[in-house]
Design goal:
The chain is an all-alpha fold. It has a single domain (8-295), classed as Farnesyl Diphosphate Synthase (Orthogonal Bundle), CATH 1.10.600. It is 76% helix and 0% strand. The protein has helices at residues 10-17, 23-35, 44-69, 71-77, 92-108, 112-130, 140-164, 170-189, 195-201, 206-210, 212-236, 240-260, 264-295. Helix 11 (212-236) runs parallel beside helix 13.
Length: 296
């Protein structure tokens, strides 16, 4: 039988879309909603559409696109994934990526012009990250920056924009961008598991470019520094309680980082479950601080 006509099972398609990766942009969108200071009221259908767009749709699209164009690397690093294992046969990985892009754009029409424009921008980055000739992920500096923006800053901006039906004010944009910069370091954590495959396929991830130890130290610096700026900005904006809460969470991350740096490759997954939890809690604290500022 021609493998091109064999359809992947729904459970395998869901695996390809990687639900575990949907949480960060959904959380960031929620932070944007909170930071707007606008009452949810009757806007919950738009909020629900935004959460679905940020996670299952746009993020899911990015995962399908990435797995399709990374299928040769995954055959080395993670051969059990849906495409290299053959559970998503033929061109189905590409078909799913294209179909999910179209569905994402259709859903984005419910979010007004700002929400739709943000979705288009996110989808363009999703394809540019993985697909040639741009393939931002070939370089860890650009690829991680694109991911950080799509996972944190863009959905945060979108959440605030759909609540206000306008461009968010400069303070919201600044905090969203700072957490996007921090996410650059978080993205580096995901590269430690695939150093050998990246080297063989010519992908210049930061662990390949800098070496594992230097990349780990750089990732920790990039995660911590923007949060310290957030603390400083909250103090300037006269939110000392919120600033203190974020500072305490940063101190917790520094403790976890010290343990992570002793063995970066082995402990990167562990740090993802500990230090990153403090990071995302700091995001929501900052969102409530912005809401308090806007509420006067």
């Amino acid at each position: 039988m021609n493998s091109a006509v064999i359809r992947p099972a729904p459970a395998v398609v869901l695996e390809l879309l990687k639900p575990i990766t949907w949480f960060p942009p959904m959380w960031a969108f929620g932070c944007g909603v909170v930071s707007s200071g606008v009452s949810v009221g009757e806007r919950w259908p738009v909020i629900l559409a935004g959460v679905l767009l940020a996670g299952p749709m746009v993020c899911g699209t990015s995962q399908a696109v990435n797995d399709w164009y990374d299928r040769h690397v995954d055959a080395i690093n993670e051969p059990a994934r849906p495409i290299p294992s053959g559970r998503v046969p033929g061109q189905w990985g590409l078909y799913i990526a294209i179909g999910w892009t179209v569905l994402s754009l259709l859903l984005a029409t419910l979010l007004g012009p700002w929400g739709f424009a943000a979705a288009v921008f996110g989808l363009v980055l999703a394809w540019a990250y993985s697909a040639p000739p741009i393939r931002l992920k070939q370089n860890g500096w650009w690829g991680n920056a694109a991911c950080g923006l799509c996972y944190e800053g863009l959905p945060w901006f979108t959440g605030a924009a759909v609540m206000t039906a306008a461009s968010p004010d400069s303070r919201i944009v600044l905090i969203a961008l700072l957490y996007s910069v921090g996410a650059h370091g978080i993205m580096t954590l995901n590269d430690f598991k695939s150093v050998e495959g990246d080297e063989r396929m010519g992908i210049d991830s930061l662990p390949v470019l800098l070496g594992v130890e230097n990349a780990a130290r750089f990732a920790c610096f990039v995660m911590a520094a923007p949060q310290l700026i957030v603390v400083a900005m909250l103090i300037v904006w006269q939110c000392p309680v919120y600033a203190t809460a974020v500072a305490v969470l940063v101190v917790g991350q520094l403790f976890f980082m010290a343990h992570f740096l002793k063995s970066p490759r082995e402990r990167a997954p562990w740090y993802n479950g500990t230090g990153i939890s403090c990071y995302v809690l700091g995001m929501v604290v900052s969102a409530f601080a912005l809401a308090a500022i806007r509420g006067g």
